[in-house]
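Bit of a strange request maybe. I'm writing a small parser for structure token strings and I need a real example to test against, not something I typed by hand. Could someone generate the tokens for this chain?
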Amino acid sequence: MSRIVIVDSGVANLASVRAAFRSLGAESAVTRDPDVVRAADYVVLPGVGRFDAGLQALRRSGLDSAILECQRAGTPLLAICLGMQMLGEGSEESPGVRGLGLFPGCFGQLPPSVRVPHLGWNAVDWQFGQGSSGGAPPLRAGTAAFANSYALAEAPAGWEAAWTTHDVRFVSALARGRTLACQFHPELSGDFGMELLQSWLTAENTPSAFGPTNVAATGAGRIEPAASSGLTRRIVPCLDVKDGRVVKGVRFQNLRDSGDPAEQASLYQQQGADEIVVLDIAASPQGLGTRLETIRAVRERLRIPLTVGGGVGSVADARRLLSAGADKVSVNTAAVRDPSLIERLAGDFGSQCVVLAIDARRSGDGWDTLVMGGRESAGIDAVDWARTGTDLGAGEILMTSWDRDGTRKGCDLELLAAAHDAVPVPVIASGGIGAEADVADAFRSGADAVLAASVFHDGDLTVAGIKSFLNTQGIVVRI
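Reply from user aminoacidic:
Good idea to test on real output. This should exercise your parser:
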């Protein structure tokens, strides 16, 4: 059996990568041993978080040399997200830190004119004929899941390149020979990503079969898309979990059983969900084992991003959840009690991994921040807290209207607009969804994603039905 070796740089969520290969019938092994990497039939270099942390981990273990030796020997190499960035010469995130230099170019920060991190689903469009495609996997246009703040602005000579637009155009993938580097996460990109992983494994080399793409070459190694694409709006089912079961009530009261988390997550993925949130509303140290088993079971069924929250009080808690299969962690009460937790999480895992969840209750002209599942007031304005949390490193805000949660009376649109104007990162709207029009209103008020629970669990709405409605309203979603 061919040996797929996943490099453990210490800055990657490995569970989703392994689960994706298992779904293709391919087993993989995780290693920090450079000799195991050298002996591999396939090498995967995933990564999230900071550029300097990733390179330091590779060099500390001698993995940097092993990866380059494999690439020069023609061993199939797949680099994902930070893994792709580490193959370049450097990054503005870590000035003075040398990359592996497999291709020229420095990764620059995405501009402040857009929401950063670039989180969610965006179009990937390939340009063929610029590079050397011999032995490269078949490459087609599609929509992929991203989580990046830095990107490559120019395509290096001799490489096939794919492009994506988030206000500015950037290189979202590179291919040459048996090397494929993706700025997006193929393991989290549904059918499109799975096809890409399968073709990388089988080395089918038929890029021309996918026909012309919507790009035009401009010379000098730089390729400009002929038309822009853009980030789609996300629909996010939330699974409130207690003791390993999905539950739902109103403001976490009068809870009723709504099914098995893994089965529910799989159903919503089939309907077209863009990601899943699992929130353990009764998280406790005693229940840690159950929580981790739940996350592992959900991850095995999912090929889209997974966010996990509830009871995350330390970097160690987050690391366990990420190791079990989460792609992002959500923090709430613990971050209010100790705001430095946000800094520490972002420092270890990157801002794109840190979601600040805020339960907001209207108070006069503003909104009070609630903690402990809504049982206590923190005495902090919710919008101010969102701004502070972002400054500390949170890459996304999950804003829940406590007044609307479970009521199906529509979102608090004033709250969403205020949060959108206050922070430069994506905002997820939560609380009050009862109809398709409520989702459209939330997006028009500034939400980048909309989270809902009871309307999905009770079967009153489906993800596909909401997206069909949004399409008629001119709101761009992933179909």
